[in-house]
């Protein structure tokens, strides 16, 4: 089977998918575009909604990062089989997205970062304290055992850290432990070592 994931050379909306593909040891073409080169007209025009990430499997095309993540999770055994459990972890993944969208909105104007610092700190506290509580209840995982929502959280925290130049998880031990657990999983450990840290070119 041929698999292809196209995104920018950053974590963002694609890193959780990359992690899951490596975790499942599924071979894929990891195509990355440089922000400076974007938009590449021939690529953008061929995208169903003009945006990345895009996932292709044997010529079939899937857009929307959460739909891609959920599908790949199924392929690698990270999607619970029980419908209620599926909904619980999907809600967690959506909460992670709400968190990042809130931060992005607050950061939209980089010249206002200082002015917005208080609001950003409050948003981090609001969401991270809730993620911490939910993970604690679930034995360290959103759904009681490792699922795709845990990967989404790690990808989103990484991305937020990259933009905020910090470690937003540092006061949240269960969140911190989950990040370490995911980084040390077979397949991901090797990928992270090879990938190295991301740098932001804005
Ligand atoms: N809801 C979409 C959002 C996708 C999105 O916003 N992609 C951005 C990068 S994170 C993009 O492609 N930007 C470049 C463009 O719009 O030309 C998803 O989750 O996949």
UniProtKB/TrEMBL annotation:
<dbReference type="InterPro" id="IPR004046">
    <property type="entry name" value="GST_C"/>
</dbReference>
<dbReference type="Pfam" id="PF14497">
    <property type="entry name" value="GST_C_3"/>
</dbReference>
<dbReference type="GO" id="GO:0004364">
    <property type="term" value="F:glutathione transferase activity"/>
</dbReference>
<feature type="domain" description="GST N-terminal">
    <location>
        <begin position="1"/>
        <end position="80"/>
    </location>
</feature>
<dbReference type="InterPro" id="IPR004045">
    <property type="entry name" value="Glutathione_S-Trfase_N"/>
</dbReference>
<dbReference type="InterPro" id="IPR036249">
    <property type="entry name" value="Thioredoxin-like_sf"/>
</dbReference>
<dbReference type="InterPro" id="IPR010987">
    <property type="entry name" value="Glutathione-S-Trfase_C-like"/>
</dbReference>
<dbReference type="Pfam" id="PF02798">
    <property type="entry name" value="GST_N"/>
</dbReference>
<dbReference type="InterPro" id="IPR036282">
    <property type="entry name" value="Glutathione-S-Trfase_C_sf"/>
</dbReference>
<keyword id="KW-0808">Transferase</keyword>
<feature type="domain" description="GST C-terminal">
    <location>
        <begin position="82"/>
        <end position="200"/>
    </location>
</feature>
<comment type="similarity">
    <text>Belongs to the GST superfamily. Sigma family.</text>
</comment>
<dbReference type="InterPro" id="IPR040079">
    <property type="entry name" value="Glutathione_S-Trfase"/>
</dbReference>
<protein>
    <recommendedName>
        <fullName>glutathione transferase</fullName>
        <ecNumber>2.5.1.18</ecNumber>
    </recommendedName>
</protein>
<dbReference type="InterPro" id="IPR050213">
    <property type="entry name" value="GST_superfamily"/>
</dbReference>
<dbReference type="GO" id="GO:0006749">
    <property type="term" value="P:glutathione metabolic process"/>
</dbReference>
């Amino acid at each position: 089977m041929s698999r292809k994931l196209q995104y920018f050379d950053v974590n963002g909306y694609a890193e959780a998918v990359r992690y899951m593909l490596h975790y499942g040891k599924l071979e894929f073409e990891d195509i990355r575009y440089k922000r400076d080169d974007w938009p590449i007209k021939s690529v953008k025009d061929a995208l169903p909604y003009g945006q990345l990430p895009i996932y292709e499997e044997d010529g079939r095309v899937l857009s929307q990062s959460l739909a891609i993540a959920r599908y790949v999770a199924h392929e690698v055994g990270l999607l619970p089989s029980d419908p209620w459990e599926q909904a619980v972890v999907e809600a967690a993944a959506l909460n992670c997205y709400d968190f990042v969208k809130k931060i992005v909105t607050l950061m939209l104007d980089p010249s206002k970062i200082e002015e917005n610092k208080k609001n950003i700190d409050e948003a981090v506290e609001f969401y991270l304290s809730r993620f911490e509580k939910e993970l604690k209840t679930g034995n360290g995982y959103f759904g009681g055992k490792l699922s795709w929502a845990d990967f989404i959280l790690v990808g989103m925290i990484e991305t937020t850290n990259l933009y905020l130049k910090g470690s937003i998880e540092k006061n949240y031990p269960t969140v911190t432990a989950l990040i370490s657990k995911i980084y040390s999983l077979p397949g991901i450990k090797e990928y992270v070592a090879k990938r190295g840290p991301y740098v932001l070119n804005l």
